[in-house]
Amino acid sequence: MSKDQVNLAQSEPAMAVEETQPARVVEQLQLDEEGRNGLTSSLPRVDGGWGAWSYLATATALEASRMANSYGVYLDHYTILYPASTGLLPIIGTVAMGIMYLLMSPLSLYLTTYPRQRKITMWIGLVIMFSGFIGAAFASSAAGLVVTQGVLYGIGGTLLYCPTTNYMFEWWLNKRGLASGIMLSGTGAGGLVMPLISNALLQKYGKRTTLLSIGISYTILIALLIPFIKPRLPIPSSTSTSSSRRPRPKVNWGFIRRSPFWLLWVGVLFQGLAAFMPVTYLPSYATALSLSPTIGTLTIALMNLARVPGQVIIGHLADKMSPRKLILLMALASGLSVFAGWGAAKNVGGLVGFSLAFGAFAGSYTALFSRFIAILNRDDPHLPAILYSLFFLARGIGSIASGPLSSALMSHNSSLDGAKGGYGVGEFGVLIIWTGTGMIMSGVGAGYKNYKLD
């Protein structure tokens, strides 16, 4: 694309926010950038082919190795080990997830500017994550677990997974919703298996052996996967020009000033403030119903199981349907699953039904992010990874805030004595109401259609 063509494109009327990102324009910008750096323009196929699918399979396997979604199983076990720290224990899982989401934005911006650092970043992340597992295994207090299983695991996970998502925007364009849905379904697949494995190990061997065995296994598996995460676009040689003179990608930050971005971002924030409550507390809720620990573990596993087809289906629909309709559908279905599902669950059948419904809808919400990016970005090839990380930033703020928030909601003076169904179980009533309200409020993002990009 010539300079005159770029200026002409910028002078055209703004597109409606409902339009999708024209892949040919993005592809041409990528090719032009390679030409300026003296690189080959012979690229692997986008949206398919061996390179795209092999990358996606490896990225999905990496997503399956995320452990934070299984923390509810550990919380139920840690409550017995550290009964004096029940207010601190819920923070461990939300801190781990929150750090991953919060650090993605600055790290994604850095890796967009310095793409050669992506692979070494992944190896450093793996080392830090392994250190978190080892530290948690030998931690003797809840505070020690916050630092190791929370902070260290979160930092290591960010460094490990962020470069993987950066590469997704190189390999996939028109089918990006489907691709991101498949990749994120790996989180659900891992969340199906790991609660069962973790609970069995915790019951038989205890905390130390469980964390050591899982940490070593994860490290070996991920070390075998990292070499298969490869870029599609050639990376400029470090010897081709001095680092000070090498052109850096320029990102158009104009979207920050536009209402559609903030409406979508706030919707993600509301969803994040509520989405982690069931994952953290369902095993404890099952215990409060005098059900066996296996039932509590099963609810987490089923919730993650429902995310596998949910992420793929919602991701595919995000490529085809109006984003506004999908946002409203997800908000209403997620809220209904909480108010009518969790709010009425007093037995195994009720918990199973709620877990499947909540996992399918609320658990698949992140598959919409690829379409949010298409709404906000027309022709900047460097912006998608940054926008993606900014939406995860909102989710991270919600994740971290949900830890102390849930502890406050679960305080003994917040019980709804005499309420029916799950609302009257211990202190869970207010927590259920908050979770359902957050799901409904996530629909505020649908208001973006009332605005146009300018």
Automatic annotation (TrEMBL):
Keywords: Membrane, Transmembrane, Transmembrane helix. PROSITE patterns: MFS (PS50850). Residues 1-454 form the Major facilitator superfamily (MFS) profile domain. It is a multi-pass membrane protein. It comes from Kwoniella europaea PYCC6329. It is found in: Membrane. GO terms for molecular function: transmembrane transporter activity. This is Major facilitator superfamily (MFS) profile domain-containing protein. Belongs to the major facilitator superfamily. Monocarboxylate porter (TC 2.A.1.13) family. GO terms for cellular component: membrane.
